[in-house]
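step=predict obj=Rossmann-like alpha/beta/alpha sandwich fold n=211
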Amino acid sequence: MTKDEAVAVLWEYHRLHQNLKPADLLLVLGSNDERVGVYAAGLYRQGLAPRVLFSGGAGRFTEGLRGTEAERFAAAAEAAGLPREAILLETRSTNTGENIRFSREVLEENGLQPQSIIALQKPYMERRTLATLEAQWPGMPFQVSAPQMTFDEYLTDTLNEEIVISAMVGDYQRILEYPRLGFSTEQPFSARAEEAFLTLVGLGYTSQLLR
């Protein structure tokens, strides 16, 4: 398998391609890609949910940046047309598990009890996000989505090929390893995705692997 083939296979494995239906809440999990916030604003304008909760303090890729992930995402969404009164913030979390735990606390503090949620993340984190939500918020109906982009469309000057491929590789490993720790649910195994993962590890995209 060539590098380009491996990238395409792993990118596609991480995607879920769910057809979204209206829900009670958009839960936006913070990261280093504020385009997810803009995507949330678009879904809000389409009527997919009446409230948007942005969750994120600082994580692997955002330590040291000004403001929290939630604040930066909310600002990007507001600039894209999301009304301020529709916004909730959770600014303490440092990983996906904390995104869920602290977001639930924010909802409780605001007297909100959503019966269905659309979670938004980066494209290559859709599957791991769903697996984490299923394990750590059982019983809640979730849909998961991300900006609709190909791998090449996703790349920017700051989110370059090295960063994104390494992150995809790291997330694939976490999909395999985290269920045995109770962090997430088991996901379908793909022999092609495993081959792609091993190909990219062999090519040196290892900076985001668990140690």
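step=describe
The chain has one domain: 3-202.
step=end
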